[in-house]
Amino acid sequence: MAEEEAKRKAEEEGKEDYEPDNPTPPVGGTGGTTAYPGDRGSGGAGFKEEPATQKIVNFHMSAELDITRINRDVQKLMEEVVNHIINTDGSSVQISLEVVANAEAGFTPETVRTVSENSRTLKVERFGFGN
Predict the structure, then answer these.
(1) Where are the alpha helices (DSSP H) in the chain?
(2) How far does the chain reach from its first CA to its final CA, in angstroms?
(3) Residues pairing with 48 in the sheet
(4) Which of 18, 48, 75, 125 could connect to 39 by a Cys-Cys bridge, CB 3.0–4.6 Å?
(5) What is the pTM of this model?
(6) SS3 for 48?
């Protein structure tokens, strides 16, 4: 009896092809949701509102690395995270290394010179020392 009533209600709403055991494909709803004919829920009139799926197109991450195990940590991140992103069709990946250092006693002139020269030789884009 309830099935006949649901079918009659669907026909009144212009859904003549309603079948309770085999609902028709989803029809567009309002407000970014999709309504499925025949579903009973809080959406009223025999429709259940489902959230519309959106493409996830961006990813970002930041990770602090243990300087005594940096090679291992970077390798694990590459294997377990970054490679999945790289292997996605059409993906574009940019990886950068950020170093933030502080020496309470100050960096020696020799350290400043060596690090600056090595940074230039290795074509580091941005680097510098400050007070």
Answers:
(1) 2-12, 70-77, 83-86, 109-121
(2) 82
(3) 36
(4) 48
(5) 0.53
(6) strand
pLDDT at 23: 47
Average pLDDT over residues 15-34: 48
Per-residue model confidence (pLDDT) at position 12: 62
Burial class, 47, CB count within 10 angstroms (exposed 0-12 / middle 13-18 / buried 19+): buried
* Residue pLDDT, tens place only, 56-93: 999 999 999 999 999 999 999 999 999 999 999 999 99
Q: Which residue type occupies 47?
A: F
- Amino acid letter for position 129: F
Residue 37 parent element (H or E): strand 33-37
Q: What gap in Å lies between CA 51 and CA 78, rounded to an integer?
A: 33
Residues 6+ apart with CB under 8 A from 27: 34, 35, 36, 37
